[in-house]
Amino acid sequence: MSQTQPAPMDVRLMNIASVLLGLAFVGMLVALGIGWLVQQNLFRLAAIKVRGDVSHNNAVTLRANVVPRLQGNFFTTDLARAQSAFESVPWVRRAVVQREFPNQLRVVLQEHQAVAYWGHEGDTRLVNSYGEVFEANSGDVESEDLPLLTGPQGQAALVLEGYRRLSQVFEKIDAHIEQLELTSRGSWRTRLDDGATLELGHGSLEEIENRVARFAATLTQVAGKFGKPLESADLRYGNGYAIKLRGVTTTVLGDKANAKEKR
Questions:
Q1: CA angle 195–112–46, rounded 5-degree value
Q2: Average pLDDT value over all residues in the chain
């Protein structure tokens, strides 16, 4: 009975090499085919669908700012780069870019919602509802009575929160904040829409809010006693405050008011 002998080692190596070469050749053909396919006009970007917030942008402005920065076709376009291009457009806060087969991009935009100006008068930017500072044409702002917020770099969100909290207190006496500032030394001051200025002092937002609430609770009664509007107030006292009414000298109210705490 005959017994099959195993093929010599060199023959087996040659067979393995032939299989590997065949697979490599097939892989190369597949790669070339895919490369040829993705370069066809069928997959050339033909349209960009924009959804979401487009109050401050239109097809013309988006095309002018974004299209020149896009390269490649449906398969090769860098989505991260496309997202960056859209987010560089004025008023665009965030963009989500997705492919839409076979030759389109779908973009969902979120625009900044301006709630305040940021900086000093004459050199202002805008603050959105998240407390983020952004640059845009202030002439495109819909509201004409946005407050002016000022503070150290990186503190816009904190100043905006302060504005929101203090606005609720001032509304109880029918007053509105026109400017709110956090100085580099951590002291707060504000100017109301009637021109009155207030020194609020140092402290956490909760402390400042409580201080303003105590002031607002008695201001109407005090101002009504003299029949004069408020010109300025200093809330940096331990248990009281000093006010100046238009046409009236400074009046200090509260216990131990002569012991001012520069908090």
A1: 155
A2: 84
